[in-house]
Amino acid sequence: MSQAAASFQVACPHCSAVNRLPAPRLTEAPNCGACKRALFTGRPIELTASNFDVHAQRSDLPLLVDFWAAWCGPCRNMAPAFEAAAPQLEPFARIAKLDTEAEPALAGRYAIRSIPTLVLVQRGKELARQSGALSREQIIAWTRSHLPRS
């Protein structure tokens, strides 16, 4: 299926409602049909047990998750770079953070052994993983190199 004919299911970063969008609308600053807020904010979203699966499994967009913890120095050092990468990667990937201390079961589900760890997931399938702090440019390049081609 060509990208022009494709449509995507996109989970709202605010209310987690799943929205169906034609591919050309991804870049037109779409709003959620349920809560009417922007589907793309240019910022990482916070994942929890209550919203993780809708973004990781029900959304068609690849999900880039930064598994981190507040006590982790490299995680804190990478946080501004991860935030700065978000507007460069949206709307072709959802950018998110998951606090491994607050959500140990989700960290365990992905066998996170060191942090920070970036995991790229699409429809519940892990596409790629990278451990260690990266710069904004490295995050963008690494993510783009692993995004599925249409």
Topology of this protein?
Layout: E1 7-11, E2 18-22, E3 45-46, H1 52-58, E4 63-68, H2 73-89, E5 94-99, H3 104-109, E6 117-122, E7 125-131, H4 136-146
Parallel strand pairs: 3-5, 4-5
Antiparallel strand pairs: 1-2, 4-6, 6-7
Structure description:
By secondary structure, the chain is of the alpha/beta class. It is 27% helix and 25% strand. The protein has four helices and seven strands. The chain has helices spanning 52-58, 73-89, 104-109, 136-146, and strands at residues 7-11, 18-22, 45-46, 63-68, 94-99, 117-122, 125-131. A five-stranded mixed β-sheet has the order 3-5-4-6-7. Helix 2 (73-89) crosses helix 4.
Principal-axis shape: globular
CATH superfamily: Glutaredoxin
Helix coverage percent:
25-40%
Q: Evaluate the radius of gyration.
A: 15 Å
How many strands, which pairing sense, and closed or not: the largest β-sheet?
A: 5 strands, mixed
Helices and strands: which structural class?
Answer: alpha/beta
Sequence stretches where pLDDT stays below 50 over 5 or more residues? none
Q: Give the number of domains.
A: 1
